[in-house]
Amino acid sequence: MNYSEVEADILQLIVGATEADVRAFGEETVTRLVRPELLSGAADDELSADAHAALTTACADVLTISAAELHDKLATIYDGILVDDDLDTGLLTAISALAHWHSYLEQNRRGELYELAIRSVEDVDQEVSADLGDFLATPEMAAEYARIRRLLDPGAE
């Protein structure tokens, strides 16, 4: 499959999934995207101390934090970004995942979970540099795609 086909298939899976499957997918995926090792490469001068604390708390509590609390944590994070560009990739991934999760919690929009899925695919691509023409050729990318399919369409196995 090429990258566009993977994207289209993920979108169809999200649209067709049950509410319970979408929620389970979202929880597992956001947890994956805010894992502590993603934050380990960040430089101390990229975030203020308050922003770093808010990010750490939001990541640790991602499945129990309310939409309102997450909104406040994200505001603190955004206010505490100290660089204009070149924010660490792991930080970007985690902040983006939190923002999409917040929007999903607040508005129950499945499009936010599609964005989480794409961030998750991109996270794997950072590790293995998948070929856009044969996107699932690496075992890591094939495993991530299989994880997404398994969670969104558990009866298809």
> What portion of residues is helical?
over 70%
- CA-based gyration radius: 16 Å
Largest sheet: none
Question: Structural class, from helix and strand content?
Answer: mainly alpha
The overall strand count is: 0
Shape from CA axes?
globular
Distance between the termini: 19 Å
How many alpha or pi helices?
A: 8
Model regions low in confidence, pLDDT < 50 over at least 5 residues? none
SSE pattern, N- to C-terminal: HHHHHHHH
What integer is the average pLDDT?
92
Fraction of residues in β-strands: under 5%
Q: What would your notes on this structure say?
A:
This protein is mainly alpha-helical and 157 residues long. Helices cover 70% and strands 0% of the residues. It contains 8 helices and no strands. The chain has helices at residues 3-16, 19-33, 36-39, 49-60, 67-79, 89-107, 110-128, 139-152. Helix 1 (3-16) packs antiparallel against helix 7, helix 2 runs parallel beside helix 7 and helix 6 runs antiparallel to helix 7 (110-128). The protein is globular, with a radius of gyration of 16 Å. The two termini are 19 Å apart.
